[in-house]
Amino acid sequence: xxxxxxxxxxxxxxxxxxxxxxxxxxxxxxxxxxxxxxxxxxxxxxxxxxxxxxxxxxxxxxxxxxxxxxxxxxxxxxxxxxxxxxxxxxxxxxxxxxxxxxxxxxxxxxxxxxxxxxxxxxxxxxxxxxxxxxxxxxxxxxxxxxxxxxxxxxxxxxxxxxxxxxxxxxxxxxxxxxxxxxxxxxxxx
Length: 189
Fold this sequence. Notes:
The protein has about 190 residues and is α/β, with parallel strands linked by helices. About 20% of the residues lie in helices and about 30% in strands. The chain has four helices and eleven strands. The chain has helices at about 1-15, 20, 110-115, 170-180, and strands at about 50, 60-65, 70-75, 80-85, 85, 95-105, 135-140, 145-150, 160, 165-170, 185-189. Strands 1-4-3-2-11-6-7-8-10 form a nine-stranded mixed sheet, with helices on one face. It has a two-stranded parallel ribbon with strand order 5-9. The longest helix is centred in the first third of the chain and has 15 residues, at about 1-15.
C-alpha cells in the first residue's frame, strides 16, 4: 500500500510539473523497465570484481550462503561478486544444480508448504513490479528454488527467504544477461 501511495505522489508531482515534464513518464514501458519511484534500488552490498582462484569453470555460479554472496566465476582467477539474501534458519541448503530456465518478470505461485505457513499469501501473482520474484528469475534444476530479483534491497545480506537466493533487481538483471540455461550453480552452506 505504501508503494502505491509513493507512486501516486510521484505521478501527482509529474502531472503538476507541466506538459513538457509530464511527457517524460511513458507508462507503456512500465512492465519491462519500471521507473524508480521507490529509491534507487541499489544493493547495500555493491557488485564488484574480486580475485577468486578456483577450479570451477568460467560461467559457474557459486553461492556462499555463510558469506551471503554469489560469485560468477570469470577467467584469470577472478569473479563477479554480488550481495544476496539467503534462506533463514531451517531453509538453507547446499548442492549442485544447473539453471533449467530463465524468465523475465516471472509470475509466482507459492508452493503448498509456504501456503500452509502463510495462508495470507495470494495463490498466484502475475509478474510485475509488486511480484516478490522481481525483474528476473533463474530456476535451479527441478527444485522449487530460484535466484531471483527483489523489490526489497534492504533484505540483501540478510537470511530472510524460504530457500531462494534474492538479489536486487539491478544485480539480477546483470547476472541474468551473463549466464545461460545449463550454467552450473554450486550452493555452499
